[in-house]
Specification:
By secondary structure, this protein is an alpha/beta fold. The protein is 46% helix and 17% strand. The strands form three sheets. It has a six-stranded mixed sheet, sandwiched between helices. A five-stranded mixed sheet has the order 3-2-1-4-5, sandwiched between helices. Strands 12-13-14 form a three-stranded mixed sheet. A hairpin with a 2-residue loop joins strand 7 and strand 8. The mean pLDDT is 94.
Length: 492
């Protein structure tokens, strides 16, 4: 990446949407602009976990405003990530389709563990280098993330469904503060967070850091009240709770440092924070400057090259975990990549890399059962939480794995995307060519694309030398019929 490159990250949180724009210079990213709007999408989920039209409209309006600032940004320089509310929303595709159109960039719904990983990256990148073992806490609107890490490496990540928006609406209705409400809210938070004790116990970390909204707001109020700047203590949290109890309701709280956008959710956020202090025996917590959006910015740097793209090592981890035949996986990946470069010579890079990942994972389901292993593999990828991937990326890999054998029309909905169709054909052809589980003879074999017509050609005599491969390739013609794509195979 060139010095002077502008990068942007959009964080679609449950309480607020944020836009961070940074300038890349010599390995670091310096803030250029920051926009934040309180959207409170988390309040728009009904009992069936559907987002209300009003909540979606608030989000769309915000994204349209962000889009004006991002008008000149190329797609590769913007990362938009959505968290717990859109993870939960059953009708999220409605919001995402319109939201991506308005923003002008795709929106990635990320898993809880992936959110935690990006939060840690954001925090760690803005801290001085140190060998200290860190506990990082981020209390969001509908989830709380906990991370253990050292330097830039997260060693344990977890996401819990407890957040300031959800807890405020559930335990502090109409913003009313009572002793009983705080006690109930803290007990309920501990019940959700209790499983964190085994991993995040006090002897596993040296310094605790808090990131983002709730913790930043509490830090501002305590600093304004004369407590140590940038530090949270149980004494300070007790003082703040007493002030809220005296006010009796959120609209009557008069505290320097409390912004209006945080007022309605401060009760829930504070109760969760107090629960964490008690549960994990935290005596002091430092308010961190980094957060999810900074992590998303730095993650774009890591994705620039295959050797620094975390997703590559994640795929290798899955290959190992599911005992995939590495030699065959690499063989299929190499052949698929060679065919892809012929069919779409101008689309190498991320498109080729994702095809390679799908090829390495195409037999991941064999560990469950060889029968219908492609379906098992797709299920695994659709239902796993792994580092570096957004949920739609895993779904797309799963679709390639599902479609690499059998009927193509079962994933017809995805075939309208030319890149996906080319990736799928290259993967299917590679699996056919490597059916004997040895390196195939590709000399003189070419794949071309003209509109919606694929043309596969081989040198004279190739079919006679490899009759089984030739038979399977001719059978592939039928698989693509009535899909909107045509495959022409000439094997003289």
């Amino acid at each position: 990446m060139q010095n002077g490159t502008l990068l942007a990250a959009v964080d679609l949180g449950s309480n607020s949407f944020r836009l961070e724009i940074g300038l890349y210079e010599h390995g670091r990213i310096q803030r250029v602009d920051y926009l934040k709007e309180t959207v409170r999408q988390g309040n728009g989920l009904d009992r069936e976990h559907n987002l209300s039209l009003e909540a979606m409209q608030r989000g769309w309006d915000c994204l349209a405003r962000f889009a004006e600032r991002l008008a000149d940004f190329p797609r590769a320089r913007v990362r938009a990530v959505a968290t717990q509310t859109l993870r939960e929303a059953r009708n999220r595709d409605v919001f995402l389709h319109r939201g991506s159109e308005l923003l002008g960039h795709p929106i990635d719904v990320i898993s809880g563990p992936e959110e935690a990983r990006l939060i840690y990256q954001g925090v760690a990148r803005l801290l001085p280098q140190s060998d200290e073992k860190r506990l990082v806490v981020d209390i969001g609107g509908r989830s709380t993330e906990l991370i253990l890490g050292q330097r830039f490496r997260p060693e344990a990540v977890a996401s819990f469904r407890v957040g300031s928006v959800a807890w405020s609406s559930r335990y502090f209705p109409q913003g009313q503060f009572t002793q009983q409400a705080f006690a109930t809210a803290e007990i309920a938070a501990k019940a959700v967070l209790d499983e964190a004790l085994s991993t995040y116990r006090p002897d596993t970390w040296d310094v605790a850091y808090g990131s983002s909204g709730t913790i930043g707001a509490v830090g501002d109020m305590l600093t304004a009240a004369g407590f140590s700047p940038g530090e949270l203590t149980l004494e300070g949290l007790d003082w703040l709770r007493e002030r809220l109890l005296r006010a009796q309701s959120a609209d009557k709280v008069r505290l320097e440092g409390l912004k209006d956008d945080r007022r309605a959710v401060i009760g829930g956020g504070l109760s969760i924070l107090r629960a964490l202090f008690d549960l994990l025996e935290i005596r002091s917590m430092q308010v961190a400057q980094g957060a999810l959006r900074q992590g998303a910015l730095y993650d774009m740097l890591d994705r620039e090259l295959p050797e620094t793209d975390l997703r590559t090592s994640t795929v290798q981890g899955l290959v190992q975990s599911f005992a995939v035949d590495r030699d065959q996986a690499q063989r299929v990946a190499a052949v698929a990549g060679q065919l892809f470069a012929q069919a779409l010579p101008d689309h190498e890079g991320t498109g080729a890399r994702k095809l390679g990942w799908a090829a390495q994972l195409h037999e991941i389901g064999c560990r469950i059962s060889h029968s219908d292993y492609h379906r098992h593999g797709a299920y695994i990828l659709d239902n796993t939480d792994v580092a570096g991937f957004a949920q739609h990326e895993l779904h797309r890999l799963g679709a390639l794995v599902l479609g690499h054998r059998g009927k193509v029309r079962k994933i017809e909905a995805d075939l309208g995307d030319t890149l996906f169709a080319v990736q799928l054909l290259c993967l299917r052809l590679a699996v056919i060519l490597c059916h004997a589980r040895r390196d195939p003879d590709l000399h003189g074999l070419t794949l071309g694309l003209d509109g919606s017509r694929f043309s596969l050609r081989a040198r004279t005599g190739w079919a006679a030398s490899y009759p089984q491969s030739a038979y399977l390739l001719r059978e592939e013609i039928e698989a693509w019929q009535r899909t909107g794509w045509e495959l022409d195979v000439q094997l003289p």
